[in-house]
Amino acid sequence: MNQVSFLYLAGFLLAGFGLFAQNPADQIRLNQVGFYPNAPKQALVVGKNFENFTLIEKESHKVVYKGKIKEAVKSPFSEKYTQEIDFSNFKKNGNYILSVEKLGESYPFEIRNNALSNVAKASIKGYYFQRVSEDLPEKYAGKWARKAGHPDTSVLVHANAVSTNRPEGTRINSPRGWYDAGDYNKYIVNSGITMYTLLSALEDFPKTANDLELNIPESGNNLPDLLDEILVNLEWMLTMQDPTDGGVYHKLTNANFDGMVMPDKAIQPRYVVQKNTIASLDFAAVMAQASRILKPYNPELSSRCLTSAESAWNWAKANPKVFYRQNQNNEKFKPAITTGGYEDNNDTDEWFWASAELFVATQKSQYWEGIASTDVYWLPIQSWNSVMPLGAFSLLKARKTLPSFTANKIAQIQNTVLQQADEMVKDLDKPLFRTVMGKSAKDFMWGSSSHAANQAMFLLQAFQLNPKKIYLEAALGNMDYLLGRNGVGYSLLTGYGSKYPMHPHHRPSIADGIDEPVPGLLSGGPNPGQQDQCKYDSKVPDESFSDSDCSYASNEIAINWNAPLVYLAMALESYYH
Fewer CB within 10 Å of terminal CB in the chain, N or C? Predict the structure, then answer.
């Protein structure tokens, strides 16, 4: 065969069977961490003409299970097909590999009783690596040890945040907390949903929380390590309330984002900026929830949280339409602030959430008014700027302890949650990756990974109301999505799985000189918006991902993204282990 003919044939084969030119492990999409013996176990192979698979014991390479691969399903977003591999009937603990006939072998994985305990621990420990104002010594941080950054003991009150007792330039003490994302600032609004989700994990799965030892400085102090980590941010949030009037500052921030340097090298002046209604309501909701959950652990702090919550509520009532508008502020006040805006145009959901948490905590009628007047016939999947579901979930958890006059409204909310959960789990044999995540192109947004985890958390709320197995299994399917059964073939949690993001948009991971990124951080995931203008290999919604530290639109990390992963992993450990 001459060279031209050979090249023509090679081109034809690659065009017709291009999938075979990929790494077989990349073509077999599965949870790269582990499966529970008595839970569903599914994987997918990208393609449409495969017939047989075997399950192989990793060490001995012995075949332990065989099966047929199911019919192909076509992507609604591209020309891609996938076929399902189901090995749910195999239940023996061990380390395994899937092999697809005429293709090759998958990444390895485990089957064991506590299959996701390491994921649960890592996703909580990720917050330790985000701590502000303290050293991370090698004893706890391993090779990612670093010096403290941002003591935040002399934070300036910005010109847009002045009050009678705190004129411009007043210095306040606001240390600790967590860096919000890949940057070094701290935001009340994004802390809101983060704290709700972590406190809910502690409340809903206390035994699992007690079992998770994280090797953090507070370990062994008779509190769950998860609670110790929550308190780091709770204590910071309390410093963000103006003690003279109860209003809450929007964020603690530099004027501009820091460069790609380690925290201790970032020394720009820090500011608290404008008190506003939404930040105050988010704060009120978190503090009311914390007052309830912390009572058995620390009654004094519980009482302080409730007092702070009611004070923030009163400020919001007196200032009901004060919104943070960064560009408008920058036209009037200097220095200009250009860090994350977290601006929200709709406060209906924040009023509902704060009302719900304060009512559950106090049962005062003044808080019920905002709940009773709000119809809850539909709920979005929760996010930092859509927090009505959080109030709904708290009311449902407390439903048996609430006064009888709440019954009709609680029934309406419960019906809404269950109806939406039923809709979410319909036709799960049809999506490309057989998961709730990805049934619609709209699922692939900025922070799509957290959307998958929040979908699962929504389903788990339904499962707590009505323990239908499909709700739990669909939540597990979204965990499989996050750990590798997805359109990009990555486990999206740094440090976990065989193929995970190595270059997240995360300043310490970029600046520390260590090849591996800080572990336990959930990457944002596919986002066809591609707002960062970085290089992507695809614009297909479920494939639009770039493992590049340039890509803040698809590969940043954030505290509100890790939180539902914590909740999901703890739930699955609780129900399946």
Answer: N
Q: To which residue do tokens 């009611």 refer?
A: 310
Residue type, 479: M
Q: What is the mean pLDDT of residues 337-359?
A: 97
Contacts of 89 (CB under 8 A, 6+ apart): 65
The pLDDT value given to residue 577: 87
pTM score, whole prediction? 0.96
Coil/strand/helix, residue 57: strand
Give residue-wise pLDDT tens across range 74-122.
999 999 999 999 999 999 999 999 999 999 999 999 999 999 999 999 9
CA separation for the pair 453, 525 (Å, rounded): 12
Q: Locate 469 and state its tokens.
A: 């197995």
Residue 183 annotated as catalytic: yes
CA distance to 302, 434, 528, per residue, from 538 (Å): 49, 21, 8
The yes-or-no answer on residue 547 being catalytic is yes
Q: What six digits make up the tokens of 296?
A: 């058995």
Is 480 considered catalytic here? no
Phi and psi dihedrals of 318, rounded to 5?
A: -80, -20
**Candidate list 505, 532, 542, 549, residue with the active-site label:** 505
In this structure, are residues 189 and 213 in contact, taking their beta carbons and an 8 Å threshold?
Answer: no
Among candidate residues 105, 135, 547, 577, the one labeled active-site is: 547
**Could you tell me how many helices (H) and strands (E) the chain has, helices first?**
18, 15
pLDDT over 90 percentage in the chain: 95
- Catalytic residue check, 211: no
Rg (CA), the chain: 24
pLDDT tens digits along 200-211: 999 999 999 999
d(CA 474, CA 127): 27
Task: Give the active site residue among 26, 110, 180, 183.
Answer: 183
Q: In what order do the strands lie in the sheet with 81-86?
A: 28-29, 42-46, 81-86, 72-74
Those residues with Cβ within 8 angstroms of residue 331's Cβ, 6 or more apart along the chain or in another chain: none
d(C-alpha 408, C-alpha 415), whole Å: 11
Q: Please tell me the distance from the alpha carbon of residue 425 to that of residue 88, in angstroms, as a whole number.
A: 19
> Is pLDDT of 11 > 90?
no
Tell me how far apart the alpha carbons of residues 28 and 489 are, in angstroms, rounded to a whole number.
8
